[in-house]
Here is the input.
Amino acid sequence: MARKGYQEELNQLQEDVIEMGRLVAERLQMGITALDKNDTELAKSVIFGDTDINDIYIELESKCVNLFALQQPVAGDLRLIASSFKIITDLERVGDLAVNLGDYTIDSRKDVFPDVDINSIGNAVLDMLYDSMDAYKNQNVDACFEIESRDSTIDSMCLEANEVVVKALIETQIGEGGSVDMLDNLMIEVQCFLLTIRDLERIGDHAANIAARTLYIVTNNDELLY
Here is the structure.
């Protein structure tokens, strides 16, 4: 492959990763909205649309492997290809977690824990994902550090939400008039909410990973990777 063609392949890879990020963010937005509005039809759209993301992932994985095998890249090009491969892996996983949100929408009742602001957590991680992809697109080093620092805020929000859910379960258990069936049903809702919170926290982790890989691409600085 001529040098010009090789550079065009690298540019196209970056554009394709950005487009995959756009699609994943769109599906995540749909999953969050479905959960917030208890929209089962929208949830099904997220679930059934996961194949599109998987197909894109496989295609980009193949492009990365071919660039490794045919070009034997070094230095900055090597970091770009290797980090882009890791980023599409993070994006594919975010797509899977968006599907989980669709499943939870179908399986749970949002009104059980009205004090849990799932929508705020969801929007916070969605913003992180958008910003991490913008940092990758623009090679914005400062943004990488700022995005990584927001991950601890997401963790705190999720911890607080977990405490609300567990407290509600305990209060129901020790309250008067609670039947076994009622507690069993509540446990199902508790599991759905805890899994939802866990998955939103993981999306924040993946967004932070994208920022860390972007920093590594631009500066060869791996401090956010560990």
Observations:
- Residues 3-225 form a domain with the Methane Monooxygenase Hydroxylase; Chain G, domain 1 fold (CATH 1.20.58.220).
- Residues 180-219 form the longest helix (40 residues).
- The two ends are 35 Å apart (CA to CA).
